[in-house]
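Thread: quick sanity check before group meeting

JM: Hey all, I'm pulling together slides for Thursday and realized we never actually wrote out the predicted structure for the chain we discussed last week. Dropping the sequence here so it's in one place. If anyone has concerns about the input, flag it before I start.
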Amino acid sequence: MTEKTEISSTTQVFLDIFDITNNVVVLKNGTVSIVLLISAMNFGLLAEQEQDSVIYSYAALLNSLNFPIQIVINSKTKDATAYLRLLEIQAQQTPSQAKRDLIQRYQTFVGQLIKERNVLDKKFYVVIPALPIEVGMMTPQTLLPGKQAPQITQEQKAAVIEKGIGILEPRRDHLIAQFNRIGLYARQLATQEIIEIFYNNYNPEAYEGQQITDSQNYTTAVVNAGTVTPPIASQTSIETTTPAMPQPTEPPTTTAPALEETTAQTPTEQTQPAPAEENEVKIAETNKASAKDPNLAISPVILPKTNTAVTNTPATTRPTAPAPTAMPPVAEL
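JM (edit): ok, ran it. Output follows.
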């Protein structure tokens, strides 16, 4: 019976790529490279003088180089998945049934043409590298026989990328200008485009119809090997149930008895009549005046004595308006 060996490595061990970031490719030996995408030209349709002009311009480009470059021609089967999906969306949004039928027929024709004719898509790339000795990864001692080239680390990556970009930007601008003289359009590839190129090259049969996720959504740059954890069922027999700790009970809250609403007793404002002594003084004065002037006849009015007892009413009731007082009649002159 053979024992199963645990897998402790991943495919990253066998690749030379250390990281793809900031629109550059960083290799494990410290090489930093940028990739240019070059447009194509139908050289056979040009006139003889135009062909000679293109050849001389290309020769001038090669003679102007003082750094190495790599030219890559990538041929792959044309992926028309996005185009077929666009035709399907247009067919669904078209209100006319006749136009919808034409779009569906054209979609079927394009799909069969891609399968039968094996249409190829060719792309032309130019790779501009900055060597490890240029970015400071290699020293003269590492060039001696028997010395192993150093490997880049995560601590050195930021410094190597910064120095490599400073070296590669002038070379990039020079190449773009030289390709423009020939009549070719060149541009630098972004990080996501470089990732798709490497994925398609390492997975030629699995990339068709797939959409690669944006690199900004990646949580880690390297896939680490993991160990197989035992099933949960085997752990349940070991687990012991511990009794639940009693939760401390809060003391009962006693509610204070409802206080009886005590309403302040406010006396009702009442007008008290004038005292009886004042009434008698007024009567005496009128009698004296009538004795001097017989024509003045005054009928004295004695106000009845009222009980001045105060009644207590609750404060919640609205106080009553004061009762009007009876005024004595004015004497007629």
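AS: nice. The chain is about 35% helix and 15% strand. The first strand starts at residue 17 and ends at 21.
JM: adding both to the slides.
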